[in-house]
Amino acid sequence: MGKVVLVTGVARQLSGRLVRRVMREPDVDRVIGVDAVPPEHHLGGAEFVRADIRHPMIGKVLAEHGVDTVVHMDVSGTLPGKGGRTAVKETNVIGTMQLLGACQKAPTVRRLVVKSTTSVYGSAPRDPAVFTETMPPKSLPRGGFAKDAVEVEGYVRGFARRRPDVAVAVLRFANILGPRTDTPLSEYFALPVLPTVFGYDPRLQFVHEDDVIDVLLLAVRDPERGTLNSGTFNVAGDGVLLLSQTARRLGKPTVPVLLPAVTWVAQTLRTAGVTDFSPEQIRLLTHGRVVDTTQMRETLGFTPKFTTAGTFSDYARSHGYGLLPPERLAHGVDRLAALVPVARDQT
What we know:
Blueprint: E1 3-8, H1 13-23, E2 28-35, E3 47-50, H2 57-65, E4 69-72, H3 85-105, E5 111-117, H4 144-162, E6 167-173, E7 175-177, H5 184-189, E8 194-197, E9 203-204, E10 206-208, H6 209-220, E11 231-235, E12 241-242, H7 243-250, E13 254-257, H8 259-271, H9 279-287, H10 294-298, H11 308-319, H12 326-345
Parallel strand pairs: 1-2, 1-4, 2-3, 4-5, 5-6, 6-11, 7-10, 8-13
Antiparallel strand pairs: 9-12
Helix pairs in contact: 1-6, 2-3, 3-4
């Protein structure tokens, strides 16, 4: 008998893609897709079970299907369809607690893979230049998805202590972008004009949605040497981009906003339904965040196909450019930058 893999949150496009890829793995016998709402996309022959992970029913699903590998993808900042912040937090935190409780009681479970985020490090003015997996944040996230992820990881560590026989991999993804991504940050980049925080030009990292699927598959597979793919891993493409560089590559103008007025702008955008400009996203677009990926390469053995710049370029090509041609905008900014030292010398 091959492996039986259960994937949560399959109503989302990214999870659906993962299910279809796992179905093609030669050592996988069955894939069980779980979500509270039916997916609108096909699951490639996987079995769909309509179940809310916030309820104890998820334990019955694990037992009935003899699941040995669980991929927890149902940790996100939004829910498919309608669902406010309360429902999102309940799914992230309460749902994870119920799922881990069910995994603890299921003797067949041997591997757990959890989708997390580099948002657990927060974004603060005195952050280190680069975060490693062992570094605590200078300022813990105070709310939103980032705080949920911190709580989720805490529960996962507790589970790992209670079930040392289970290989546990926590993948902290940088901001995910690509042709199909639908996240608050991708919605921000889709705006015709990008509001920025006056006086700040944060460093950003991205990971391509294709690399997300590939590294999840790697974590699901049985390692050749022991439990090599157990642990916590930052996952991001090589390099960084400044926010100003992303605007230039999109061909979109920016509107610098004084920090005290940013909250008002964010509320206006949320009220208009344009994008979910959350406080944690404001902090990211103010202070930025960069993580070290040494463990991803050396321990997990994964090298992304896309760099941060390559990921953003693929996103830009698929979503279209702004009113300003990127090449002309970049040329104009470079000329202006070249004139600045000349003007200083003449004064």
